[in-house]
Design goal:
Length: 397
């Protein structure tokens, strides 16, 4: 056990990456706290957990690869989240090895570099959830302009923005800071900010609390708008009514019939419809000329329902997996003694690993909220090469 007199914190669970939880020596200077090993440190359960994260996100990405109908504007954000969650799972492989061998297996230079990259990956995941909420917020409050200006290229740019912000911050906050200060990461790859209460609070603020505030405000506004628009009626019933609505009125945007079991790229469909209508048409009736206004397009009720439902599951997954550990870290940053004696070591480790559960719940959320994705994954697992089902196209009168 370390004999250092430097004030330090039990970084085994302060680190959201849990790089240091394999040895008792990192639990220093917290009086009266036992540091017995827990069965969670075994190789089996972390390995299975990591394998599930990797497999779930690989299946999701394969589904997007084989089924073109899944590659819609809204799902481009989901694809990015799946890539991020896959990288989270791959990054956990190193943590599992660390847990098994009892020390960080790489040198300190790689510890500093991979520490910044690993934290940026996790942070990018949370930033993407904020972007999805912001995009849904605009789609709810300004549906016509949102539909007219959105594109898959725009979705790629927004996803890149999340990556850029996360990498820029964490590579400076972890990698650059530790290299400049020549920080000794010790044999367990300890983060420098975890030794400073204020810096540790900033970690929690950027990773969880700021995204949580933005997500909560945006989603609450979306919920209020939907309730107000539907007059307090069931969203599901209203959307179902819209899906079954007749397409006989040519001035009303047509929805795809019975779209609860299919996904359609309404962006491309809407564009084709727009190309078929000139901005202004003139029809002669005797000596009079009637100017017809262009039809205003917006996403279909089916797509709105699917996107809103997917967002709900993503937000719930984010809050459930991140909130307990973030509260723990905030209390711990104030004073470790406020938390450590009352929360057993297995409990601290459980809440820490729970944050990684977000990367496992996300692909499950996509499958639950999107029937076509669920069917595609099933066909991939069963090695079916035939198409799932054909999409009936709506005829515009």
């Amino acid at each position: 056990m370390s004999t250092s007199t430097e004030k330090s914190y039990p970084t085994a669970w302060v680190e959201s990456a849990f790089d240091n939880h394999t040895e008792n020596e990192v639990y220093t200077e917290v009086p009266g706290v036992a540091t017995n090993s827990s069965s969670i440190h075994s190789l089996l359960w972390p390995s299975l957990f990591t394998a599930c994260i990797i497999a779930a996100n690989v299946l999701t990405l394969v589904a997007f690869g084989v089924e073109k109908r899944l590659r819609t504007y809204n799902n481009y954000f989901i694809i990015n989240l799946s890539i991020i969650d896959l990288l989270v799972g791959l990054n956990l492989v190193l943590t599992v090895v660390h847990t098994h061998v009892g020390y960080y297996p790489l040198n300190q230079a790689l510890c500093k570099i991979l520490g910044g990259i690993g934290k940026a990956i996790i942070c990018a995941s949370n930033f993407v959830v904020v972007i999805i909420c912001a995009d849904r917020h605009r789609a709810t409050y300004d549906p016509i302009n949102h539909f007219m200006t959105r594109s898959k290229r725009k979705a790629v740019y927004l996803n890149f923005l999340a990556w850029l912000g996360a990498l820029a911050f964490w590579m400076m906050y972890i990698t650059a800071w530790e290299f400049i200060d020549d920080f000794d990461n010790r044999r367990h790859c300890v983060r420098k900010y975890s030794r400073i209460p204020g810096a540790s609070m900033l970690n929690s603020l950027v990773i969880f609390y700021l995204p949580f505030v933005f997500i909560s405000v945006l989603y609450l506004r979306i919920f209020v708008k939907i309730r107000k628009t539907l007059g307090g009626k069931s969203v599901q019933k209203k959307f179902s009514a819209n899906d079954d609505h007749s397409v006989s009125n040519s001035n009303v945007v047509s929805d795809f019939p019975n779209t609860s079991d299919i996904d359609i790229d309404v962006e491309s469909v809407g564009q084709k419809r727009l190309e078929g209508h000139s901005p202004e048409k003139e029809t002669e009736h005797g000596n009079s000329v009637i100017n017809k206004k262009p039809i205003m397009k917006r996403e279909s009720a089916a797509e709105t329902r699917k996107a809103t439902r997917t967002l709900l599951f993503i937000v719930l997954s984010f809050v459930i997996t991140w909130l307990p550990q973030s509260i723990n870290l905030l209390i711990y940053s104030i004073d470790p003694v406020l938390l450590v004696p009352g929360l057993p070591r297995p409990g601290r480790l459980f809440f820490g690993w729970l944050t990684y559960g977000n990367s496992l719940l996300n692909p499950i959320s996509y499958a639950v909220s999107q029937p076509l994705l669920r069917a595609t994954v099933k066909n991939v697992l069963l090695c079916r090469c035939t198409k799932i089902s054909s999409v009936k196209k709506t005829v515009i009168s």
